[in-house]
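#onboarding

Welcome to the new folks! Below is a worked example of what a typical request in this channel looks like: someone posts a single protein sequence, and someone else replies with the predicted structure as tokens. Don't worry about understanding the tokens yet, we'll cover that in week two.

Example request:
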Amino acid sequence: MAPPGQLQGKVALVTGASRGIGEAIALELAREGAVLAVHSRSAGSIAATAGKLRKLGTEVLELSGLLESPGTGEWLVEQAVARFGRLDIAVNNAGINILGPLGEMPREQFLKVLEVNLLAPFEICSAALRHMKTRRSGVIVNVSSVSAKTGLPKFPGFAAYSASKYGLQGLTDVAHTEGRPHGVRVVALQPGSVRTDMLKETLPDAAEALDPAEVARVVAFICSGAGASLAGSTVEVWP
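Example response:
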């Protein structure tokens, strides 16, 4: 957990913040003093999270948009900077999973998973890096998955999801290499099973699972000064 107030005055963007891990991350960053730009697919779905953040006394910018639409990721960064004047933290949390065995999954479904889980983070990383480099400061956290951990058995039907998360790992590695000389830290977070709606839908028989708040505390630590040594790291969180 980040020391109290370690993120005081920082500006954070969190995608997929209407529920589960994303909402927990937004709330934890707010408790540590950050102001928030929070995103979800629709304006209606992000309103509840924004209300919880305001009850904590946090200034909030509500953003909505389909991450599979080209340009949405860059637009989110632009909106956060326009509202708050800068961006200190970007958390690529939003993700989807469409199950389907290889040989049966339509190309369109495979591509949609890549658009949300990889291409949108590419846009956000690109836009955030451009901004953060000029300030010589910033943290980007890409929420990956142990589905991208080499050597672990993979679940049948997870081809699109696993491919997107392996791609996100590669994106993180290069973003770290390019950002580090300019004071920008980029970290990948690989949670195991987390108690979310996605887990219920895709792995209903999962024996153990993390609480989203546990993942959120790790993200807050990564973003704080205490997590400065984690630049370029892949952080695993297990139940």
